[in-house]
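Attaching the record inline, Q. Sequence:
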Amino acid sequence: MASVLFAGFAAFHFGGRLLDFQIGFGLAGLVDIATRNNMPLVGSILSMLAVLMFFLIDGHLAMLQVLQLSFMKLPLGAGIANLDIGVFIAYFGACFSLGFAIVAPVVLCLLLIDIGMAFMSRTMPQMNVFILSLGLKVIVGLIILAIVVPFSGGIIHMLFDSIFTTWGKAVT
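Structure, as predicted:
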């Protein structure tokens, strides 16, 4: 049950890490004090947004219902031989494709900026395009992300729906 939930939230983290790398925030990541690991800036924001939305759609109540059903399917002390592992494998693949789909428009815009900067680098070799592109990619990436996130509700709904569907398949 926990792995399904963590994979759903990891999709947001994956999309944020990909976006951080494309924007250029990967050069300087946040440091998580508890684990002493580098955390992506946009990935942390998207993960916090996902937790907020999970509680807003009453996902914690559905999680408690699934926990109750799991005790009927797998009593305490029983093994996991009754579980269908194929459902989990398919779900994990779907999570990361949905995580990419959340940030795909922003990644596409940043790719177009990179292509434009590559042409600029070839036509004006004396110009330091790397420094110019860092600022441009940060500004454009954050603006496009602010535009895209309100419209990605369908993808986010599909991701949370897949969490609940996978839980349902696992405990029935």
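Residues 12 and 49 are 9 Å apart (CA to CA). The mean pLDDT is 81.

More tomorrow.
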